[in-house]
Amino acid sequence: MPSEVETTMQPETSAELEQASFVSATADTQSASIDDDFAPQVACTEDEARLLLWRWESFSPSYGDAPSSLHAHSSFYLPFATSNSACRSPRVVLWDSATAPRGILIARIAMTRAKCSLGPVSLPMPLLKTLEIVHGGFIADSPEVAQQQLQYLRDLLASKEIDCVAVHHLRCDSAPGEALSHGLRQADEGNPVHTEHWYTELTDCNGEAVITNSSKTRGSFRRKDRKLERHFDNKIHIVEITHADQIRSLITAASNIGDQSYQGSLGVGVRDNPHWRNVLRILADNGQLRGFLLQADGKNIAYAVGGLCNGCFCYMAASFLPEHREIAPGGYLLRRILEKLQAEGVRWFDFGFGDASYKALYGNKNDREVTLHFYSNSIAAQITRLADGVTRVGKQWVRALLVKSGLMAWTKRQWRRRLEHRSK
């Protein structure tokens, strides 16, 4: 699966930032462990968060050198956090110096339940007050600043303000990632889940197109494209969706496609629900929405949707009608999207979260990431920690067994087709 945007309001002068008052429930404990030169500023409201994000984004290095995260950018993060019913408040923590910011946490306080299951049986889990650090929202410019960030998280858990700290898709080779590899409070904690995150560099730093695949692979792509076009007598059309008044038609088409695929049984992909209506509206309001419908002989057979931010396109969801699996409409649409974005000079294509094999085929850069959950000592948190740990170990054992036996790809195909059959 591909991955999980308000017009940024900037303060009129930097004096506004200097005069802003930021408070934290753990301020007393932080003062003893944080160097005064880099004392954290903590924002717990939308206005406070906007000021800190404005300072961080004003001093951030050029976005062209590496893919940037849409989820952590103020244009998406703020309106999504404030409009999400599960979110209690934003939480942005900035480690600042006299000359420039040194590190940041971009998170939200939300009421969540861990998703734990044993086979097809979902386990009922308690509701936890969780600090959710978003993808791309945990950055430090040095190991020293990363250690200060970890101390902030320790103090937050000890304060009993929250039950859980969730760190989503943290780069393992980043300063915070390397610091957390030794645990937050002790070794081997956090129930780590490691994943690969793939990107495609579409254009280089000079704006020149980057050729990703070999000539043999590109030739194979062209043959597949011609096969699909012949199947539909060249009656192929791609509709691009960028405006708010087109969202209704995009959701209707995408939901119809999803209902007939394995994604419909899982409840993933674009659905006609408040979450997706909210996400697509935010993207459209920011001018970041890029939705695509592949039409064959007037019928929608595939869709893809994402957001374009700071030269990086974030691929959020995609699917196709399984009846056309043999001619691969999903791959056809993806190649047209890559070509279009490359022609526009877009720097990066972010394939989002998940381990689908096609990402390694099209991608030319990948990061190893880890998702971690740290729990307080409350009864509800400890119940969740134990259930989360047991079910994750079980899933990892089954996955390792399938990979070792060479049955992973076959198992995935059978599982998806069974779900598709149930969707009919």
Short synopsis of the structure:
The chain is α+β, with helices and mostly antiparallel strands.
Q: Spatial order of the strands in the main sheet?
A: 1-2-3-6-7-14-8-13-12-11-10-9
Total helices: the number is: 14
Q: Estimate the helix proportion, in percent.
A: 40-55%
The profile of the biggest β sheet is: 12 strands, mixed
> Which structural class do the helices and strands define?
alpha+beta
SS elements, strand count:
14
- Poorly predicted ranges (pLDDT <50, ≥5 residues)? 3-36
* CATH domain class of the largest domain: Alpha Beta
CATH architecture descriptor name of the largest domain: 3-Layer(aba) Sandwich
Average pLDDT score: 85
What does this protein structure show overall?
The chain folds into 2 domains: about 15-200 and about 370-400, Aminopeptidase (3-Layer(aba) Sandwich); about 205-345, 3-Layer(aba) Sandwich (Aminopeptidase). The longest helix has 27 residues, at about 380-405. About 40% of the residues lie in helices and about 25% in strands. The protein is α+β, with helices and mostly antiparallel strands. The strands form 2 sheets. It has a 12-stranded mixed sheet, sandwiched between helices. The relative contact order is 0.15. Mean pLDDT is about 85; it is low at about 5-35. It is globular and about 65 Å long.
